[in-house]
Write a structure and sequence with these properties.
Blueprint: H1 20-27, H2 33-45, H3 47-76, H4 81-89, H5 94-106, H6 110-136
Helix pairs in contact: 1-3, 2-3, 4-5, 4-6
The structure holds zinc ion.
Zinc ion (ZN) binds next to helix 6.
């Protein structure tokens, strides 16, 4: 997936406060009113931004629109860390776990992947220390 839209492109790009994400949302009319106006004004002023919008429109036409839309929709509803940890432990509502799997593997959300890795480390280390603790003091439980 080399042509996945960059989530929050660092400000090296075009106009300082218009992200690629905002342009996609602009095309979908999924932005709050004030951001729609912001983008509209920025488009009027910036030639390179207009070109960027043009490129996005072409990519939408090539079928990336769907992926992009899904990606964004799911990114907006990123599962929180509780959900991610139940995914990690494979506990909880299977439908929810399924959704998380979709979010991580199909959408490939970089935020949640990083989060999951982080949780995994925490989990591994707490497992290790729980082992140590339980051999000394069996009455102590870690949540
Ligand atoms: Zn996510």
């Amino acid at each position: 997936m080399s042509s996945t839209p960059v989530p929050d492109s660092p400000q090296g790009g075009t106009t300082p406060n218009i992200t690629l994400q905002m342009l996609w949302d602009y095309l979908d009319e999924a932005l709050p009113q004030k951001d729609m106006i912001l983008v509209e004004n920025a488009l009027r002023e910036s030639e390179s931004l207009r070109q960027q919008l043009q490129q996005i429109m072409q990519r939408r036409d090539n079928g990336e629109h769907t992926v992009g839309a899904i990606w964004r929709r799911y990114r907006v509803s990123c599962p929180d860390r509780d959900v991610l940890s139940s995914y990690l432990l494979n506990t909880g509502d299977p439908r929810l776990l399924d959704y998380v799997r979709f979010h991580l593997e199909v959408i490939g959300c970089p935020y949640c992947q990083a989060n999951l890795e982080d949780l995994q480390q925490v989990y591994e280390s707490s497992k290790a220390s729980a082992k140590r603790a339980s051999s000394k003091d069996p009455s102590r439980h870690r949540r």
